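$ fold --in a.seq
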Amino acid sequence: MKLHAISDLHLAAEANRAALAEIRPRPEDWLILAGDVGETEAHLQFAFDALQPKFKRLVWLPGNHELWALPSGTPLRGVARYERFVALCRARGVLTPEDPYPVETFGGRSVRIAPLFTLYDYSFRPDDVAREKVVAWARETGVGCADEYLLRPDPYPDRDAWCRARCMATEARLAEAAADGVPLVLANHWPLVEALARAPRIPRFAPWCGTRLTADWHRRFNVRAVVSGHLHLRSERRLDGVPFHEVSLGNPREWVGRRAPDECVRMILG
């Protein structure tokens, strides 16, 4: 049995919906969907319909797009919206960040799979840029993020507070899970380490890409591998001996004619 991952399917795009048919079956293996499957429940259902017959088990965690409260969509916002997606996953037998972290054996090695939801708190910014000025600082170079209008944190006062709450609860769960010595695979939509959150063409997008609260998790919790997406910059890098996998498919212009969709399914363990 192998463990695979992919993120940023962005199924609002017709080409990306068609791409799922090109992912070959791996019926003995697991697949992590590391956020930004799409913006609607229908997008999530489409992904599950296409991929559940091809894999033994799916694991889902949210990206910012799942959390968008679109004007034409459901009125659910913030935590209630996230919980609705969790319920949809559970109805389909898909693991989420709210479920117990399972221990499974991939390639002869036992690991604990930990899907995470940490959000971001704008701390991936220069130390001399104040929090209240970070959005304006990014806009100086024409950079912005639709999250400012679409990702609502209800009932939290802001995204920063929601991020802190998620990180505190997740850190406690990871500390408890790591106590038995079983190595962890951490999967999160946003990069856990600031050094991995710099997009060369839009460096000032980093404030929407994670939080410094997660910077040492890969060292503290006996981590075998880390999976993330969000940046649409596929890569594998090692930090402190731990492999970090960015596993985005991305928007059609970023993959069509460059790589086959099946090539974007990254093997993490096997």
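$ fold --in b.seq
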Amino acid sequence: MKKALLALLVIAGWGQPLLAQKKTSGNPIFQGWYADPEATIFGKEYWVYPTYSAPYNQQVHFDAFSSTDLVNWTKHDNVLDSSNVKWAKRAMWAPAIVKKQGRYYFFFGANDIQNNEATGGIGVAIADKPEGPFKDYLGKPLIDKIVNGAQPIDQFVFKDKDGQYYIIYGGWGHCNIARLKDDFTGLVPFADGTTYREITPKGYVEGPVMFIRKGKYYFMWSEGGWTGPDYRVAYAVGNSINGPFKKVGVVLQQDAAIATGAGHHSVIQIPGTDEWYIIYHRRPLTETDGNHRVTCIDKMEFDKDGYIKPVKITNEGVGARRIK
């Protein structure tokens, strides 16, 4: 009788819970060395697609993570690997993903090309589900040349108000923008006949991100060296996708008491609200290996004039937030 009563009390919440419930996500939000996170929302689920942070010759696959509340995450192993992309041999990183007409398009960089004779660049894979498996869509890179000094890496895919999709990309301190064909099989020239436009703001190194808030175009990027403590995120604001984009300031950076190298991020907005989160990587204070990076999340807020407030990086992360 006593045992039965005790069991009822535990079930009713009067006794010590068998498993403590997570109140916040904690940072990192999942275990393992992962960087360059692409975060997005599909339906009522959050998804994060990061780089598997390892030496380039081992960096030949992607895992994904999903959550319904930002706190509890499920790992999806090997959503794409080099066995499904015959031209990709090493250094697969910094994915971007778009859902269009029921299919999922996964953009990625591969091979870390250093010149226009090398094979590699930005590729596209496709799947019917967000967890894949993804397979090579084109059989070759979408962008395989160094144009305007921009190494073809760190692509971000942006849908403008008129429905046109753009690819914004570039390493080595240069950023290009190009228009995508409707089926993502190639690029469409601008009205003036050019295919690539350079939109590099002052301080840009890599990792572009763009979003629209209250009619303004926010262009974000990473600065500094990715292996160093001063890696950080800066931004500009423009009135259209064409800018001009003049740097406003730095909004995400290291905190010597918490972590270093906070950068290469993405941004999500809770649908129907003005609630925003920044998902990024950073290096724990205990680590010196350049590849030892972890994926984290914190809130991103705006002041009354629409400027982004400096982000406070935390160990706690964020509280549970389901999508209604």
